[in-house]
Amino acid sequence: MHTPVSKIAALTICCLFATLTYANSLDEPGNATACVISGNETCWNDLRLPKDLVPQSYEILIHPDLERFDFRGWSCVEVFVNTSVNYIVMHTKDLNITINDIRYKIYSEKIEVERHFINGELEQLFIKLSSHLLRHSAVLINVSFHGILNKKEQGFFRSSYKINSIPRFFEMLCQYQ
Questions:
Q1: Do 34 and 86 form a contact (C-beta atoms < 8 A)?
Q2: Is residue 175 situated within a structural domain?
Q3: Which CATH number do you get for residue 78?
Q4: Backbone phi, psi, residue 107, to 5°
Q5: I want to staple 59 with a disulfide (CB 3.0 to 4.6 A). Which of 26, 76, 123, 126 is the partner?
């Protein structure tokens, strides 16, 4: 039997898969692709994500707070490097993100982040690396995030209802298009 907490956790994981997603189809492997940025301009300006990195597995931990109407969490995504690039692009919306660590899975060698920022128009997190990723390697991307459970009925949000006009119950839902 599912408790309300386990339903919330399952729903939360579903939402984060949509929030922290990468391109999931393979591209023809090519040569190294360099990215030059200026200010908050990136070399990637497409709503669809690049096919350079392909997700292999996800680990997600989330802690919703129904008293403060926010949530905090952590995610580790293992990606396969299809094309050697010096950037990572992820979808995100209305999240404060901290890059904790990016490293090679086998070597445990840390990959330095030059800078990162969110492109609000495309709803993408852009991470500029100080070096190119090794083609055909596995990379672990660890991020922490914080968001607000708002009433916009977009992304991860809250809703409420009453039973017999007595107590008010809150639930967390997700809506993605």
A1: yes
A2: no
A3: 2.60.40.1730
A4: -85, -20
A5: 76
Q: Is the pTM of this model over 0.70?
A: yes
- Give residues with Cβ within 8 angstroms of 94, minimum separation 6: 147, 148, 150, 155
Is 60 inside any structural domain? Answer: yes
Residue 104 domain boundaries: 25-148
In sequence order, which residues have a C-beta less than 8 Å from that of residue 76 and are 6 or more positions away?
58, 59, 140, 141, 142
Distance CA 108, CA 97 (A): 22
Query: Which burial class, exposed, middle or buried, applies to 11 when counting CB atoms under 10 A from its CB (0-12, 13-18, 19+)?
Result: middle
Biggest CA pair distance of the chain: 64
**Residues 87-138 pLDDT 10s:** 999 888 888 999 999 999 998 899 999 989 888 888 888 999 999 999 999 9
Q: Number of structural domains, the chain?
A: 1
Assigned domain for 18 exists: no
Residue 164 included in any domain? no
